[in-house]
Amino acid sequence: MSSDRRGGTFVQPQRAGRGLRVAAWVLIPVGLTLLLGAAAGITRTGVLDRERITVAGDAMQPTYRPGRQLTVERVDEAEIRRGDVVLVRVPGRYGGAPVLQRVIGLGGDHVESRDGTRVAVNGEEIDEPYVLRDKFAPAGPRYDVTVPEGLLFLLGDHRADANDSRYFLGERSGSVAASDVRGRVRDEAATSLWPLALGAFGALLTLLGVGLGIGGHLAGRRPRSADAATTGPYRMP
């Protein structure tokens, strides 16, 4: 303690706010560490490169029914694989609206229909458990094409209701450019928002630590009379 010339006692400035500063020293590094972890998670999972869409139409039944919400992630052309369900916007088709279809053939693949419903790629019939087959519906156009490089041959899972590559065979064998793909449907079980939650918590701790640090700094600069609550700014001799 120290006294002024009027006899008042004061808390030493360097001790005031020490607890606040210690808390700040703990919270700020922890918060920044969490922010770095969140940034790494966002980069790895691509959580910011996703969008939510609502299925419209029956072309992808029974896999995706109308009204269902899906997560679509951006994908490089080189990452597209057979069997992927992609969101495409094809100039000159579907009135410019994006549609969901399944990738059947990649550039260079030979794709052909067999008995109107089965599909063979490069001479081998592929297993399609996701396809809705309606024996009373028309089989749709037959096709026997080689997919040009850089393009994709797409079909809907509900073959009797899908307006897909089969109906545009006169345009580049019905294929669409891989660059027309806006994204790929992501497995819901693999969708995770933990990087965003971790980042929000890290930011909260960092801001709290900064606030406590400022408060501790200001408290340490202003001496406070220990007798102020009972005797005012100074004591009578």
Automatic annotation (TrEMBL):
<keyword id="KW-0812">Transmembrane</keyword>
<feature type="transmembrane region" description="Helical">
    <location>
        <begin position="20"/>
        <end position="42"/>
    </location>
</feature>
<dbReference type="GO" id="GO:0009003">
    <property type="term" value="F:signal peptidase activity"/>
</dbReference>
<feature type="domain" description="Peptidase S26">
    <location>
        <begin position="34"/>
        <end position="186"/>
    </location>
</feature>
<keyword id="KW-0378">Hydrolase</keyword>
<dbReference type="Pfam" id="PF10502">
    <property type="entry name" value="Peptidase_S26"/>
</dbReference>
<dbReference type="InterPro" id="IPR019533">
    <property type="entry name" value="Peptidase_S26"/>
</dbReference>
<keyword id="KW-0645">Protease</keyword>
<dbReference type="GO" id="GO:0004252">
    <property type="term" value="F:serine-type endopeptidase activity"/>
</dbReference>
<protein>
    <recommendedName>
        <fullName>Signal peptidase I</fullName>
        <ecNumber>3.4.21.89</ecNumber>
    </recommendedName>
</protein>
<comment type="similarity">
    <text>Belongs to the peptidase S26 family.</text>
</comment>
<dbReference type="InterPro" id="IPR000223">
    <property type="entry name" value="Pept_S26A_signal_pept_1"/>
</dbReference>
<keyword id="KW-0472">Membrane</keyword>
<dbReference type="InterPro" id="IPR036286">
    <property type="entry name" value="LexA/Signal_pep-like_sf"/>
</dbReference>
<dbReference type="GO" id="GO:0005886">
    <property type="term" value="C:plasma membrane"/>
</dbReference>
<dbReference type="GO" id="GO:0006465">
    <property type="term" value="P:signal peptide processing"/>
</dbReference>
<feature type="transmembrane region" description="Helical">
    <location>
        <begin position="193"/>
        <end position="214"/>
    </location>
</feature>
<keyword id="KW-1133">Transmembrane helix</keyword>
